[in-house]
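Quick one from the shared queue. A colleague (R.T.) flagged Thaumatin-like protein as missing a structural entry in our internal table.

Convert sequence to structure tokens.
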Amino acid sequence: MTLLKSLCVFFFLLAISFTFTQAARFDITNNCPYTVWPAALPTGGGQQLTQGQTWSLDVPAGTTSGRIWGRTGCNFDGSGRGSCSTGDCGGVLQCKLSGAPPTTLAEFSLNQFNNLDFYDLSVIDGFNVPMQLSPTSGGCTTLTCLADKCPDAYLFPDDNTKTHSCPSGTNYRLVFCP
């Protein structure tokens, strides 16, 4: 019975350790002198951030094809329906669709090949808000895009030099108007 109990405890701790080392937190801060409504897929939906506010978004382990972008010029009613001048996602505050161009995108896939997170910035869909994406540990590369056609971002789909990696379990900071 002791062996069975020990094995159960071991596998429980292993499962918890595996989950926590792969999940990531994205702290999204608006430093712009205007309101930004960040949106996140496939988790997170959307939120309003005035200058200086931060939204902490916990992204589950194994998330692939994640996107975060800023929306501008938004107006929503009490039920979360409305529209945005840039980055609109079907007229709702809590996005379930990608944003309409132009959108500066932060893209990520967590715990992929060799236990790495992959991340990038993209202006393929256009540029709307200056953005910086920085891993908070691991000595990984910080990406900054202050204007259209910025050198740190994807400009065309097959630009394989723009994807970066960091060990799984890394947390990230995304800043609008860094």
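The chain has one domain: 2-176.
The radius of gyration is 18 Å.
Added to the table.
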